[in-house]
Amino acid sequence: MHRPLILGGAAAIAVTFGLARYGYGLFQPRLAREFDLSMSVVGLIGSATYVGYLLALLLAGILVARFGPRPVVVAGGVSATAGMTLVAFAQGPAMLTAGLVLAGTSSGWAWTPYSDVVDRAVPAGLRARAMGVLSSGTAFGVVVAGPLALLAYGTGWRLVWLLFAAMALAMTLFNARVLPTGTHRPAQGGPRVGLRWFARRAAVPLYATAVAYGLVGSVYWQYAVTAVEDGMGDGRATAPLFWTLMGLAGIAGVLVGHAIDRHGLRRVHAGMFAGLSVAVALLGLAPGSLPAVIVSAVLYGPLFMAGSGLLSFWSYRLFPDRPSTGFSATVAFLAAGTIAGPAVLGLVADGYGLRAAFLATAAVSLLALLVRPHTTGEARPAPSPRRGRETVSCGVSNSA
Hints:
Number of strands: 0
Distance between the termini: 30 Å
Number of domains: 1
Structural class: mainly alpha
Strand content: under 5%
Helix content: over 70%
Number of helices: 17
Largest sheet: none
CATH topology: Growth Hormone, Chain: A
CATH superfamily: MFS general substrate transporter like domains
Order of helices and strands: HHHHHHHHHHHHHHHHH
Shape: globular
Protein backbone atom coordinates (compact mmCIF):
# COMPACT_ATOMS: atom_id res chain seq x y z
CA MET A 1 0.00 0.00 0.00
CA HIS A 2 2.75 2.47 0.85
CA ARG A 3 4.86 1.87 -2.27
CA PRO A 4 2.80 4.12 -4.62
CA LEU A 5 2.94 6.82 -1.94
CA ILE A 6 6.73 6.60 -1.69
CA LEU A 7 7.03 6.59 -5.49
CA GLY A 8 4.80 9.65 -5.69
CA GLY A 9 6.78 11.35 -2.95
CA ALA A 10 10.13 10.67 -4.61
CA ALA A 11 8.71 12.01 -7.88
CA ALA A 12 7.42 15.12 -6.12
CA ILE A 13 10.82 15.80 -4.54
CA ALA A 14 12.59 15.08 -7.86
CA VAL A 15 10.43 17.61 -9.71
CA THR A 16 10.09 20.34 -7.10
CA PHE A 17 13.71 20.27 -5.96
CA GLY A 18 15.74 18.66 -8.75
CA LEU A 19 14.00 20.60 -11.54
CA ALA A 20 11.90 23.53 -10.30
CA ARG A 21 14.26 24.71 -7.57
CA TYR A 22 17.78 23.67 -8.53
CA GLY A 23 17.29 23.87 -12.30
CA TYR A 24 18.05 27.58 -12.06
CA GLY A 25 21.60 26.81 -10.97
CA LEU A 26 22.17 24.43 -13.88
CA PHE A 27 20.95 26.96 -16.45
CA GLN A 28 22.17 30.05 -14.62
CA PRO A 29 25.12 30.85 -16.95
CA ARG A 30 22.84 30.68 -20.02
CA LEU A 31 20.12 32.71 -18.36
CA ALA A 32 22.65 35.31 -17.17
CA ARG A 33 23.95 35.74 -20.72
CA GLU A 34 20.53 35.84 -22.35
CA PHE A 35 19.04 38.32 -19.88
CA ASP A 36 22.29 40.24 -19.17
CA LEU A 37 22.35 39.55 -15.43
CA SER A 38 25.28 40.43 -13.15
CA MET A 39 26.48 37.99 -10.50
CA SER A 40 24.85 39.99 -7.71
CA VAL A 41 21.51 40.11 -9.59
CA VAL A 42 21.76 36.36 -10.19
CA GLY A 43 22.19 35.94 -6.43
CA LEU A 44 19.26 38.23 -5.61
CA ILE A 45 17.00 36.25 -7.95
CA GLY A 46 18.17 33.05 -6.29
CA SER A 47 17.38 34.47 -2.85
CA ALA A 48 13.97 35.62 -4.08
CA THR A 49 13.13 32.04 -5.08
CA TYR A 50 13.94 30.94 -1.54
CA VAL A 51 11.70 33.66 -0.08
CA GLY A 52 8.81 32.10 -1.99
CA TYR A 53 9.94 28.71 -0.71
CA LEU A 54 9.89 29.98 2.88
CA LEU A 55 6.40 31.48 2.54
CA ALA A 56 5.09 28.17 1.17
CA LEU A 57 6.72 26.31 4.05
CA LEU A 58 5.13 28.52 6.67
CA LEU A 59 1.71 27.81 5.19
CA ALA A 60 2.29 24.12 4.45
CA GLY A 61 2.46 22.94 8.05
CA ILE A 62 -0.75 24.77 8.92
CA LEU A 63 -2.63 23.58 5.85
CA VAL A 64 -1.55 19.94 6.19
CA ALA A 65 -2.85 19.88 9.76
CA ARG A 66 -6.20 21.24 8.56
CA PHE A 67 -6.73 19.66 5.15
CA GLY A 68 -4.30 16.74 4.93
CA PRO A 69 -1.30 16.24 2.60
CA ARG A 70 -3.03 15.81 -0.78
CA PRO A 71 -4.14 19.41 -1.54
CA VAL A 72 -0.82 20.82 -0.30
CA VAL A 73 1.28 18.52 -2.52
CA VAL A 74 -1.04 19.24 -5.47
CA ALA A 75 -0.54 22.97 -4.88
CA GLY A 76 3.21 22.36 -5.11
CA GLY A 77 2.82 20.51 -8.39
CA VAL A 78 0.64 23.25 -9.87
CA SER A 79 3.12 25.98 -8.86
CA ALA A 80 6.01 23.98 -10.35
CA THR A 81 4.13 23.46 -13.61
CA ALA A 82 3.05 27.10 -13.93
CA GLY A 83 6.38 28.55 -12.81
CA MET A 84 8.53 26.50 -15.17
CA THR A 85 6.16 27.31 -18.03
CA LEU A 86 6.63 31.02 -17.30
CA VAL A 87 10.41 30.56 -17.36
CA ALA A 88 10.20 28.82 -20.72
CA PHE A 89 8.33 31.79 -22.23
CA ALA A 90 10.15 34.57 -20.35
CA GLN A 91 10.91 37.64 -22.46
CA GLY A 92 12.70 39.66 -19.80
CA PRO A 93 14.19 39.53 -16.27
CA ALA A 94 10.85 40.35 -14.59
CA MET A 95 8.97 37.43 -16.17
CA LEU A 96 11.96 35.16 -15.62
CA THR A 97 12.09 36.07 -11.93
CA ALA A 98 8.33 35.61 -11.51
CA GLY A 99 8.52 32.13 -13.04
CA LEU A 100 11.53 31.11 -10.95
CA VAL A 101 9.95 32.37 -7.72
CA LEU A 102 6.66 30.59 -8.45
CA ALA A 103 8.50 27.38 -9.33
CA GLY A 104 10.64 27.77 -6.21
CA THR A 105 7.59 27.76 -3.94
CA SER A 106 6.75 24.25 -5.12
CA SER A 107 9.37 22.56 -2.97
CA GLY A 108 8.01 24.37 0.10
CA TRP A 109 4.54 22.98 -0.58
CA ALA A 110 5.64 19.46 -1.47
CA TRP A 111 8.30 18.44 1.07
CA THR A 112 6.81 18.72 4.55
CA PRO A 113 3.47 16.92 3.87
CA TYR A 114 5.35 13.66 3.37
CA SER A 115 6.28 13.60 7.06
CA ASP A 116 2.60 12.97 7.70
CA VAL A 117 2.26 10.60 4.74
CA VAL A 118 5.11 8.41 5.98
CA ASP A 119 3.83 8.52 9.56
CA ARG A 120 0.36 7.50 8.39
CA ALA A 121 1.09 4.84 5.76
CA VAL A 122 4.53 3.30 6.38
CA PRO A 123 5.19 0.69 9.12
CA ALA A 124 7.31 2.06 11.96
CA GLY A 125 10.32 -0.13 11.18
CA LEU A 126 10.48 1.07 7.57
CA ARG A 127 10.11 4.81 8.07
CA ALA A 128 13.82 5.65 8.13
CA ARG A 129 14.31 3.92 4.79
CA ALA A 130 11.18 5.54 3.38
CA MET A 131 12.37 9.01 4.31
CA GLY A 132 15.78 8.23 2.85
CA VAL A 133 14.16 7.27 -0.46
CA LEU A 134 12.05 10.43 -0.44
CA SER A 135 14.97 12.74 0.27
CA SER A 136 17.02 11.12 -2.51
CA GLY A 137 14.36 12.15 -5.03
CA THR A 138 16.34 15.35 -5.57
CA ALA A 139 19.22 13.28 -6.92
CA PHE A 140 16.99 11.61 -9.49
CA GLY A 141 15.72 15.01 -10.62
CA VAL A 142 19.28 16.27 -11.00
CA VAL A 143 20.23 13.16 -12.99
CA VAL A 144 17.34 13.82 -15.38
CA ALA A 145 18.12 17.52 -15.73
CA GLY A 146 21.81 17.06 -16.58
CA PRO A 147 21.44 15.14 -19.89
CA LEU A 148 18.49 17.30 -20.93
CA ALA A 149 20.68 20.37 -20.49
CA LEU A 150 22.85 19.04 -23.33
CA LEU A 151 19.91 19.98 -25.58
CA ALA A 152 19.93 23.52 -24.27
CA TYR A 153 22.39 24.91 -26.77
CA GLY A 154 21.37 28.42 -27.81
CA THR A 155 17.62 28.86 -27.21
CA GLY A 156 17.05 25.13 -26.65
CA TRP A 157 16.85 25.76 -22.91
CA ARG A 158 13.26 26.94 -23.38
CA LEU A 159 12.19 23.54 -24.73
CA VAL A 160 13.88 21.85 -21.79
CA TRP A 161 11.95 23.98 -19.30
CA LEU A 162 8.71 23.14 -21.10
CA LEU A 163 9.61 19.47 -20.72
CA PHE A 164 10.27 20.10 -17.02
CA ALA A 165 6.78 21.62 -16.76
CA ALA A 166 5.24 18.57 -18.44
CA MET A 167 6.99 16.30 -15.91
CA ALA A 168 5.63 18.45 -13.09
CA LEU A 169 2.10 18.10 -14.44
CA ALA A 170 2.41 14.31 -14.65
CA MET A 171 3.75 14.17 -11.09
CA THR A 172 0.86 16.31 -9.86
CA LEU A 173 -1.79 14.09 -11.43
CA PHE A 174 -0.19 10.95 -10.00
CA ASN A 175 -0.01 12.34 -6.46
CA ALA A 176 -3.57 13.64 -6.68
CA ARG A 177 -4.62 10.05 -7.27
CA VAL A 178 -2.54 8.16 -4.69
CA LEU A 179 -2.22 10.50 -1.70
CA PRO A 180 -4.61 10.00 1.22
CA THR A 181 -7.35 12.48 1.94
CA GLY A 182 -8.21 14.09 5.24
CA THR A 183 -6.05 14.93 8.22
CA HIS A 184 -3.95 12.36 10.01
CA ARG A 185 -4.63 13.27 13.64
CA PRO A 186 -7.34 15.40 15.23
CA ALA A 187 -6.10 18.77 16.43
CA GLN A 188 -7.25 18.00 19.99
CA GLY A 189 -5.21 14.78 20.06
CA GLY A 190 -1.85 16.49 20.44
CA PRO A 191 -0.28 19.14 22.66
CA ARG A 192 -0.98 22.83 22.18
CA VAL A 193 1.31 24.31 19.53
CA GLY A 194 2.90 27.57 20.60
CA LEU A 195 6.26 29.28 20.78
CA ARG A 196 7.43 27.06 23.64
CA TRP A 197 6.53 23.95 21.63
CA PHE A 198 8.87 25.05 18.83
CA ALA A 199 11.55 26.66 21.01
CA ARG A 200 12.45 23.65 23.13
CA ARG A 201 16.12 23.51 24.09
CA ALA A 202 16.81 20.28 22.20
CA ALA A 203 15.70 21.95 18.94
CA VAL A 204 18.39 24.67 18.96
CA PRO A 205 21.14 22.48 17.42
CA LEU A 206 18.65 21.25 14.81
CA TYR A 207 17.74 24.79 13.80
CA ALA A 208 21.40 25.89 13.68
CA THR A 209 22.24 22.90 11.50
CA ALA A 210 19.34 23.70 9.19
CA VAL A 211 20.57 27.29 8.69
CA ALA A 212 24.12 26.18 7.88
CA TYR A 213 22.94 23.37 5.60
CA GLY A 214 20.64 25.76 3.74
CA LEU A 215 23.34 28.39 3.21
CA VAL A 216 26.00 25.95 2.04
CA GLY A 217 23.62 24.10 -0.24
CA SER A 218 22.11 27.18 -1.85
CA VAL A 219 25.51 28.64 -2.72
CA TYR A 220 26.68 25.38 -4.29
CA TRP A 221 23.50 24.84 -6.30
CA GLN A 222 23.50 28.47 -7.41
CA TYR A 223 27.12 29.00 -8.40
CA ALA A 224 28.82 25.62 -8.90
CA VAL A 225 28.11 25.44 -12.64
CA THR A 226 29.43 28.98 -13.11
CA ALA A 227 32.59 28.13 -11.14
CA VAL A 228 33.20 25.01 -13.22
CA GLU A 229 32.59 26.80 -16.52
CA ASP A 230 34.86 29.69 -15.47
CA GLY A 231 37.59 27.28 -14.44
CA MET A 232 37.37 24.71 -17.23
CA GLY A 233 35.95 26.71 -20.10
CA ASP A 234 32.44 27.10 -21.42
CA GLY A 235 32.21 23.75 -23.17
CA ARG A 236 28.73 22.66 -24.14
CA ALA A 237 28.94 19.40 -22.19
CA THR A 238 30.91 20.62 -19.15
CA ALA A 239 28.04 21.76 -16.92
CA PRO A 240 25.57 18.99 -17.83
CA LEU A 241 28.13 16.25 -17.21
CA PHE A 242 29.16 17.80 -13.90
CA TRP A 243 25.49 18.08 -12.90
CA THR A 244 24.72 14.50 -13.94
CA LEU A 245 27.72 13.14 -12.03
CA MET A 246 26.61 15.02 -8.93
CA GLY A 247 23.10 13.58 -9.26
CA LEU A 248 24.29 10.02 -9.84
CA ALA A 249 26.54 10.20 -6.80
CA GLY A 250 23.68 11.75 -4.85
CA ILE A 251 21.56 8.61 -5.18
CA ALA A 252 23.79 7.13 -2.47
CA GLY A 253 22.11 9.60 -0.11
CA VAL A 254 19.27 7.08 0.14
CA LEU A 255 21.50 5.19 2.59
CA VAL A 256 21.42 7.96 5.20
CA GLY A 257 18.85 6.05 7.27
CA HIS A 258 21.15 3.03 7.44
CA ALA A 259 24.08 5.29 8.34
CA ILE A 260 22.20 6.88 11.24
CA ASP A 261 21.05 3.48 12.47
CA ARG A 262 24.60 2.16 12.41
CA HIS A 263 26.75 5.16 13.41
CA GLY A 264 24.40 7.53 15.22
CA LEU A 265 23.17 11.03 14.49
CA ARG A 266 26.26 12.83 15.80
CA ARG A 267 28.76 10.93 13.68
CA VAL A 268 26.69 11.24 10.52
CA HIS A 269 26.22 14.97 11.18
CA ALA A 270 29.96 15.51 11.65
CA GLY A 271 30.93 13.44 8.62
CA MET A 272 28.39 15.21 6.43
CA PHE A 273 29.60 18.73 7.18
CA ALA A 274 33.27 17.76 7.02
CA GLY A 275 32.71 16.28 3.56
CA LEU A 276 30.64 19.27 2.40
CA SER A 277 33.47 21.58 3.49
CA VAL A 278 35.89 19.72 1.25
CA ALA A 279 33.47 19.61 -1.68
CA VAL A 280 32.82 23.34 -1.56
CA ALA A 281 36.45 24.30 -0.91
CA LEU A 282 37.62 22.35 -3.97
CA LEU A 283 35.62 24.65 -6.26
CA GLY A 284 37.25 27.61 -4.53
CA LEU A 285 40.78 26.23 -4.69
CA ALA A 286 40.90 24.41 -8.05
CA PRO A 287 37.79 24.91 -10.24
CA GLY A 288 39.94 24.39 -13.34
CA SER A 289 41.20 20.97 -12.25
CA LEU A 290 39.19 18.05 -13.61
CA PRO A 291 40.07 15.71 -10.69
CA ALA A 292 39.08 18.41 -8.17
CA VAL A 293 35.78 19.06 -9.92
CA ILE A 294 35.00 15.32 -10.07
CA VAL A 295 35.80 14.83 -6.37
CA SER A 296 33.69 17.87 -5.50
CA ALA A 297 30.66 16.53 -7.40
CA VAL A 298 31.05 12.99 -6.02
CA LEU A 299 31.33 14.29 -2.46
CA TYR A 300 28.66 16.94 -2.61
CA GLY A 301 25.95 14.84 -4.28
CA PRO A 302 25.44 12.13 -1.64
CA LEU A 303 26.28 14.34 1.35
CA PHE A 304 23.81 17.04 0.41
CA MET A 305 21.07 14.49 -0.34
CA ALA A 306 21.82 12.80 2.99
CA GLY A 307 21.45 16.15 4.74
CA SER A 308 17.76 16.48 3.97
CA GLY A 309 17.18 12.96 5.26
CA LEU A 310 19.18 13.73 8.41
CA LEU A 311 17.04 16.81 9.09
CA SER A 312 13.88 14.76 8.50
CA PHE A 313 14.90 12.06 11.00
CA TRP A 314 16.14 14.54 13.58
CA SER A 315 13.00 16.68 13.32
CA TYR A 316 10.72 13.64 13.59
CA ARG A 317 12.46 12.59 16.79
CA LEU A 318 11.88 16.03 18.28
CA PHE A 319 8.31 16.49 17.05
CA PRO A 320 6.74 13.02 16.66
CA ASP A 321 3.32 14.28 17.81
CA ARG A 322 3.01 16.75 14.89
CA PRO A 323 5.63 15.74 12.32
CA SER A 324 4.67 18.07 9.47
CA THR A 325 4.26 21.10 11.72
CA GLY A 326 7.58 20.45 13.45
CA PHE A 327 9.35 19.80 10.19
CA SER A 328 7.94 23.03 8.77
CA ALA A 329 9.72 24.88 11.58
CA THR A 330 12.95 23.03 10.83
CA VAL A 331 12.78 23.80 7.14
CA ALA A 332 11.89 27.43 7.87
CA PHE A 333 15.33 27.78 9.45
CA LEU A 334 16.81 25.95 6.48
CA ALA A 335 15.05 28.45 4.21
CA ALA A 336 16.58 31.33 6.18
CA GLY A 337 20.01 30.00 5.28
CA THR A 338 19.08 29.51 1.65
CA ILE A 339 17.75 33.08 1.40
CA ALA A 340 20.92 34.56 2.84
CA GLY A 341 23.36 32.38 0.91
CA PRO A 342 22.95 33.43 -2.75
CA ALA A 343 22.51 37.14 -2.02
CA VAL A 344 25.38 37.51 0.45
CA LEU A 345 27.82 35.27 -1.39
CA GLY A 346 26.83 36.89 -4.69
CA LEU A 347 28.04 40.21 -3.28
CA VAL A 348 31.24 38.50 -2.11
CA ALA A 349 31.71 37.07 -5.61
CA ASP A 350 31.24 40.50 -7.21
CA GLY A 351 33.75 42.07 -4.82
CA TYR A 352 36.38 39.35 -4.40
CA GLY A 353 35.64 36.69 -6.99
CA LEU A 354 33.66 33.49 -7.06
CA ARG A 355 36.53 31.43 -5.68
CA ALA A 356 36.60 33.56 -2.51
CA ALA A 357 32.84 33.08 -2.16
CA PHE A 358 33.25 29.30 -2.25
CA LEU A 359 36.04 29.37 0.33
CA ALA A 360 33.89 31.52 2.64
CA THR A 361 31.05 29.03 2.24
CA ALA A 362 33.37 26.14 3.09
CA ALA A 363 34.26 27.99 6.30
CA VAL A 364 30.57 28.14 7.23
CA SER A 365 30.33 24.39 6.72
CA LEU A 366 33.30 23.89 9.05
CA LEU A 367 31.64 26.05 11.71
CA ALA A 368 28.63 23.73 11.57
CA LEU A 369 30.86 21.02 13.04
CA LEU A 370 30.65 22.90 16.35
CA VAL A 371 26.96 21.98 16.58
CA ARG A 372 26.34 18.73 18.42
CA PRO A 373 22.93 17.07 18.20
CA HIS A 374 21.27 16.26 21.52
CA THR A 375 21.15 12.53 22.16
CA THR A 376 19.29 12.41 25.43
CA GLY A 377 15.71 11.43 25.99
CA GLU A 378 14.79 15.13 25.93
CA ALA A 379 14.69 14.94 22.16
CA ARG A 380 12.25 12.04 22.17
CA PRO A 381 8.95 12.53 23.97
CA ALA A 382 7.31 9.49 25.49
CA PRO A 383 4.83 7.69 23.29
CA SER A 384 1.16 8.42 23.78
CA PRO A 385 -1.06 5.55 24.97
CA ARG A 386 -3.10 5.82 21.79
CA ARG A 387 -0.19 5.21 19.49
CA GLY A 388 2.09 3.11 21.63
CA ARG A 389 5.67 2.70 20.58
CA GLU A 390 5.00 3.80 17.04
CA THR A 391 5.68 7.45 17.94
CA VAL A 392 9.08 6.83 19.43
CA SER A 393 11.17 7.08 16.31
CA CYS A 394 11.12 7.13 12.59
CA GLY A 395 13.14 3.96 12.33
CA VAL A 396 16.17 5.62 13.84
CA SER A 397 18.01 3.76 16.54
CA ASN A 398 18.91 5.00 20.02
CA SER A 399 22.60 5.00 19.13
CA ALA A 400 22.61 8.60 17.93
